[in-house]
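Sample 1 of the test manifest.
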Amino acid sequence: MATHTSIVKAGDFILRTPLLRSIFVPTSHFFIKQAGYREIGLKLDDLIFDETPVVQKALSRLPAKESYARNFRTLTAAQCAITHHLLPKEQWVKAEEDTPYLLPYLLEVEAEVAEREALDNITV
Amino acid sequence: MLSRRFASSTRGFATKVTAKEFSGKVSTLTVKVNAGSSVASKDGLAHLLSRFNFHNTTPRSALRLTRESELLGGQFESKVDRESITLSAKFLAESLPYYVNALGDVLKSTSFRPHELPESVLPAAKVDAASANACPVFKADELLHALTFRSGLGAPLYYDGVQKISLEDIKEYAAKVYTQSNIEIIATGVNQADLTKFISDSVFAQLPAGESLAAKAAPKTFEGAETRFRSAGQSVAGVAVPVKAADYATYQVLTSYLNSALSTLNVEAKFSQYSQVGLFTIIAKSSDATAVAADIKAAVAQLKAGLDLSAAKALAATELALAEETTGVKAVDVAAVKDFKLGKFNYVAVGDVNNLPFADEL
């Protein structure tokens, strides 16, 4: 399975390569608009499937403020889904607010897991 | 027999380096930092910093350090006491450079990641405190220190959560105490010249110069106080006397006397020798509080009446010489010791306090 580390690596490669960049960046903007998660108050990192030990560990390391904001966004989105409404336009998450707040923690946890895996299977 | 050479040097930088050569294969490397509970500005800070040692550092993670050390056949330990935090490593003599670097990295570049405090440092510290405080003798010792010294040496040894300690506090404390002048390196089973060379090439040499935080003057002591602590389990009654540096010899001999077969008393004596002051304690312990009461009364009565210690001088001299060989604590000269008479003291009762005497009944 692709780990977040490998996804970030692939993303960096795309951003470094002008041709790929010119294809993928507009596609990603199109995807974000079609997915519509910002219209119910979510950030991209809120969509990460969180029922895995790695993501749970990363979530437990979020600062209290970030964790509260995440829960608030989840509740808002759930309410929007139940009532079949989008948020008023001024409350949509703006592009500059859609920050990868969870990703650094995820990458750190994944690095720890990979290191443990490597050390568990070390040959000397 | 062990062939050895004893040498000490401060060449190159401010850290005191002592090495003893043994013919054995196992070496130890100990870094003694003047940063114990009496130095810390908040209660429990020294304990938490000690628990933070051997966690993630910039060059390698905690897991990697542990696994690498296991492969080399070595062990790490970090302990806190009232005057110092002691980081020690035990390893095979040929891996000395690795361990010098590893210990240096711990002092210089521990990363203090925010998640480490709640995930591994605090739980471990709480277990330390809970298991120590479950022992009534430790509890009595803590209370006697608190009665005698109030602050400083009287501060609790372990983190108890009374004073809130943040990661920033621990970082600041680490930066303050892990300095060249405040640490001392003691090694056994290694060559002095090798050790000095490895240390001056390692991150130890990059530590800030700083200043020594060791106690320079004897702290104020208090006598004649009493406290009682109810708890289930064994009962303990303890008596403590603060000891001036000039009287160390008398109390060393007294401790040897009371712990030997020469004494008929059913108590345990302990002499905690700190750099500027000492604390002599006698502890009676039993699951039966009335027996404890009888033991401590008999002990105090005998010590108040006066005790001729000349019989125990040879024993104490031998014990001290042995301790000097194994731990490097300098032996005091006990030749002039004559007799002992107990004056004012601090008293603590822990356990079934209903059946333990009060200080004025002793």
